[in-house]
Amino acid sequence: MLDAVGTLARLGLAAVWLVSGALKLADPGQTLIAVQAYDVLPDALTDVVAIALPLVELVLGLFLLAGLATRWAAGAALVLLVVLVAGIAQSWARGLSIDCGCFGGGGQVAAGQTEYPQEILRDTGFALLAVWLLARPRTWLSVDGWLARGRGNSTGPEADYSGIAEGN
């Protein structure tokens, strides 16, 4: 049962990153506007973040989808989610009126059109999926499980899991 929960967490988090990254990559100009709207980075860094963020999200999504380096990918996802929640929270605290741009779009919105509490709750939920995978990276249908089986670390039905070793 726990392995099924882990598999759903891994695939759900993979879907989040793949969709988010693809939507940002499809409209790089709007992604730049979204990053600039947070008003926390120097201009030179906003360009770098706007280019790198969708690529990082896609890589995380692919790793999680494949179940490759699951614990590492979950840790990286958690760090990124904490940064995103902090960015949303600081925008809210500073009285900025922006859309987070988490799933494309983003940038300035009319006063009263922000959805900061919903965005923070949603991203916190995604962070909980990452925490689950950090604590218990074993999932079905994963490259990690296949690699473990190939190294003789696992036999039988559990060979489909991503838990290469207890410390992973």
TrEMBL record:
One Gene Ontology cellular component: membrane
Pfam families: MauE
Domain of life: Bacteria
Subcellular location: Membrane
UniProt entry tagged with the keyword Metal-binding: no
Coiled coil: none
Membrane association type: Multi-pass membrane protein
Protein name: DoxX family membrane protein
UniProt source species: Amycolatopsis eburnea
